[in-house]
């Protein structure tokens, strides 16, 4: 299957072109949905793309593009195998 990650439009991403995570990559890549970040575990503010952001680890960044954070995550759509 796959997971489709939709977020609000940002300067460098078209909302009609969401990130699509292959099901096989979910375990291999170790994606992270984050609501808090940093040494002080502070909430991610809207100014920084919060309240929820998707982190793509460096090992999978080449496949899923740069930047390694998808900001303003609004929706996850889980689809089964085709």
Quick check: average pLDDT?
A: 82
Low-confidence stretches: none
Largest sheet: 3 strands, antiparallel
- How many runs of DSSP E, i.e. beta strands? 8
Content-based structural category: alpha+beta
Instruction: Tell me the helix content.
Output: 10-25%
What does this structure look like?
The protein has 82 residues and is of the alpha+beta class. The protein is 17% helix and 35% strand. It has two helices and eight strands; from the N terminus they run ββαββββαββ. It has helices at residues 23-29, 58-64, and strands spanning 2-7, 19-22, 32-34, 36-37, 42-43, 53-55, 69-70, 73-79. The strands form three sheets. A three-stranded antiparallel beta sheet has the order 2-1-8. It has a three-stranded antiparallel beta sheet with strand order 3-6-7, with no helix packed on it. The longest helix is centred in the N-terminal third of the chain and has 7 residues, at 23-29. The protein is globular and about 40 Å long. The protein starts with a strand and ends with a strand. The mean pLDDT is 82.
Short overview:
The chain is α+β, with helices and mostly antiparallel strands. It contains 2 helices and 8 strands; from the N terminus they run E-E-H-E-E-E-E-H-E-E. The model has no long low-confidence stretch (mean pLDDT 82).
Annotation keywords:
82 residues; three-stranded antiparallel β-sheet; alpha+beta
List the helices and strands and how they pair.
Elements (H helix, E strand, L loop, with lengths): L1 E6 L11 E4 H7 L2 E3 L1 E2 L4 E2 L9 E3 L2 H7 L4 E2 L2 E7 L3
Antiparallel strand pairs: 1-2, 1-8, 3-6, 4-5, 6-7
